[in-house]
Amino acid sequence: MTGCIALILSGGSGNRFGDQTPKQYLQLGDRSIIRHAIDTFVEHPGIDGVRIVRRPEDNSLYEAALADISVLDPVDGGATRQESVRLGLESLEDINPTTVLVHDGARPFPDTGLVTRTLDALNDFQAAIPALPVFDTIKQTASNQKTIQKTLDRQKLWRAQTPQGFNYRAILTAHRDAAGLELTDDAMVAERASIPVTLVDGSESNIKITTQDDMQQAKRMLNLSDAITRVGTGFDVHQYGPGDHAMLCGIAVPHDHGLKGHSDADAPMHALTDALLGAISAGDIGSHFPPSEEKWRGAASSEFLRHAAKLVSDMSGQIINIDVTIICESPKIGPHRDAMRQKLAEILEISISRVSVKATTTEKLGFTGRSEGLAAQAIASVSVPG
Questions:
Q1: What are the residue ranges in the chain where pLDDT is below 70?
Q2: CA distance 285 to 376
Q3: What's the pTM value of the predicted model, to 2 decimals?
Q4: Which of 93, 97, 113, 208 is deepest in the core (most CB within 10 A)?
């Protein structure tokens, strides 16, 4: 019996990707997509062997991708992903590993830490998968309809990734029992067999390449595209007035004053909007949402920020990161910082790891020091085609 074998799936045809060559064998920099993944497992000290599950008709592509690396002999896959995994697991019976990791060959960036976290969890659990929390609001509809039935509790929802790790004998038995069913990942197979599955922290960089847009994202991650990085800054000030809260980064923060403004006076969000507009040379917030227009009175500043983000998207751009600094004596920002970061991440549709919110004072100097109002500054970096 050996320790852990990594099974890497390469049985897909890539129809959704829209290329004659299966996407896992397409070149991504100096290596194919699947080779990026294979190298991580081959080089990991906790992995004792790597086996590829492939389509027989892709043999020449397989040999070209793995010409200079030592792995276990490949095994032919089946008609479905689930069947391919079962065949891969059955091919390991003579090796009889203690644990097995199953990874999608179309995920080129499983980092060492991700693999280690999954392996470590298998010391205490029979199954472990990497996953990321869901920040979007998720709606459920009836089959083949677009009418919302209900909103799901996103606090209980996670995005599953691979590699998914299992006790070898347990998942082999579970797969054999589930043969012929249509289950979308191996964790579902384990769940059906009443095998407890624990979650470990996933990675935002562990993307799955399914569409051409995914491929472009992968190229950007490797600095392979023709994209350039542009930076914009923003600054805004609002005076205190009557009220019992201040809107800051979309969060109603309790305070003994409100903020005066034509809209909801969310100074940090206004500064961030200007930063994004500046990064793409699209004017400023006033040129898009003139305070002289009555329709913007009392408007939620999230509307302004979404507009700026859409302009970035319309340029085929991507927001790399944002950094917001709130300048005030009060209210205290620290207790609300994480809620602010999450709100901005939701509005901009980016990972919270790309969002920074900080606070500082002016040491009782100036109008902010006299608590007459607050100020905010923001920096945004975006990647756009050159």
A1: 1, 12-19, 225-226, 386
A2: 14
A3: 0.60
A4: 97
Rounded to whole angstroms, what are the CA distances from 345 to 142, 250, 302?
29, 11, 11
Q: Which tens digits make up the pLDDT trace of 260-272?
A: 988 899 999 999 9
The answer to whether 127 and 195 have CB atoms below 8 angstroms apart is yes
Residue pair 184/85 in contact (Cβ under 8 Å)? The answer is no
Which tens digits make up the pLDDT trace of 97-153?
A: 999 999 999 999 999 999 999 999 999 999 999 999 999 999 998 877 788 989 999
State the Cα–Cα distance between residues 56 and 323, nearest whole angstrom: 50
